[in-house]
Amino acid sequence: MPVRIMQPGHLSLTNGLATTSSVTVPRRLGRVWSRLLSYPTHVTGNPSLQCNSDAESFGEHKDDTIDISKLTEVKQKLKLVGINCDDSCIPGRYAHLLCPKCKGGGRSLERSLSVHIIQDGDFAMWRCFRVDCGWAGRAFAGSNKIRKVMSSRQVAEKSLGLEPLGEKLIAYLGERMISEGTLQRNSVMQRLHDQAIAFPYWHNGVLVGCKYRSMERKFRQEKGTEKWLYGLDDINETAEVIIVEGEIDKLSVEEAGFQNCVSVPSGAPPKVSNRELPPREKDTGYQYLWNCKEHLDKVSRIILGTDADTPGHALAEELARRLGKDRCWRVRWPKKDEFSYFKDANEVLKCLGPGALREVIENAELYQLHVSEEALQCTK
Description:
Number of domains: 4
Strand content: 15-25%
Number of strands: 19
Helix content: 25-40%
Structural class: alpha+beta
CATH architecture of the largest domain: 3-Layer(aba) Sandwich
């Protein structure tokens, strides 16, 4: 039975008033609907009425206008830490300024400080991309703290001791159905001293972190770096995003034909929190979402492909709470046998092949319907 939902990010004008248009969609997406909803939605009428996420939520859309008072407050806080915003500091864009800490490396006066004020002017983040500096931090409007600054080290392939993947790891990943082409496109490498698989994290073409995985499934993240979504540069211009629970799952989804996929950088929680969502500056466990807010705000549809276990379901719920359940969809992993389901994207890829994985993703369900059906099954 079709379900009538409000399609986020699509406004129309009726008698001079902004109204949210609706669309009737099937309960599950087939191939045709998957293609149709993969295109960006457009705004008609007054361009100032474009949707954007609420200051404390990704999923609640409102007018995409700049709050001048918040913008002024954020710029004042930036000035307190030595960042003087010039005319290039436009909300929603990246500006490159002289770093007040390293002074651009002395005589070179390199404009190595990247400053980004989000579209609504609610908070700003900055980072110096000089290897011997790496100063980074955030400033929030409305926060009790005048400033929130954190130290962050700059990383490079050479300083991390990375080298191209050897034949052993290529074969290991090949057994998991990950091709050499996918590994090369994602710059997957290995660590020199212990041959652990290295998954570099990139942001705007700059290396910002790295995560390691041994063949014994031991994980480690590079210390002193901020957390971002893995594969972030693959969703710069997309209207639809797939979020999975691990780097190999992201590569698996790419093998199925979807490059617009990212992975969370850390593991899933054991259960859903029963507390209200904390303000962004205290939402430490999901800071990677706030770091990527500008990318995620532009997305009209988010497919959650977390693991089919209790922590995976909890992660999906925590992500949906922050991203907005109205624009989230949930992958239902197929049954393995009478008593169990395939756990994740890579297991489906290995056992059923890329075509089956693609079909599972294309048939993702509306998140709220998926959760309601799960609750109903639990009561039977």
